[in-house]
Amino acid sequence: MDRELSRRKPFTLDGKGKGKGYRDALVWHTVIELVKGSSEPIAFVTKNWRDFSMGKDDRTLHHHLTDDLAVQGLETRVELFENLQEFNEKYVKPHIPKTSNYNPGLVRDYIRQEIMAHPFNLGGPAFTTSSAGFPDFGSVRVFLVDTIVDVEMPEQAQEFASNILVMTAKVDARCGLEFYIILDQMNLVPENVLVGVLRETPHGYATIITIMQAQLELIVAFDPSTQTVKQLDLVGLHKI
Question: 216: which residues sit within 8 A by CB, 6+ positions away?
């Protein structure tokens, strides 16, 4: 109760000026108990950066939360990550040996064919409209790839114990994007962006579609023994 009244993170105000964050507070106290019961550092992975971090441009743990840890001498024991990819980039990938034992041309051709034919099959995390250059309306998905300009492949790939090679490909393409928006927010869409309203709901929402040039960042899993691509995950979406 004291935490909510003093507006200490992860408690925040909702749109009506009322406090919210009870469930987030339970999560945070669980993290503290895990730290107290372990001699190892804790990686706290959450997409909810608004309530646990310093802010959009500083994704480190909020000082209200580091103060909680400091009281118990644990201030260096918790590190905040927005997703598992971010954690892997820092702590897993640097320890994976690299190899160049793959055919970039073969993988490049597969990527071109697969995402042109089956863009819905791309796995990976959800993206927000802000990653595509819009205000933050919510999640967005790629529903169409009709032109691929370039596919950039690395010279080396990372090899896992299963002998599967993993690499990152960057694809410049003309894409169709789909997202939901509150109709009252239509004026926030940049004027130079052509959008279409696919359908409206009785609750004031609409499905929006737009075509734009974007760079898709893909994680590719390649099996050198069969010379086939096993999986494509879309992990980055950036407006060009």
Answer: 115, 142, 145, 170, 171, 173, 175, 234, 236, 237
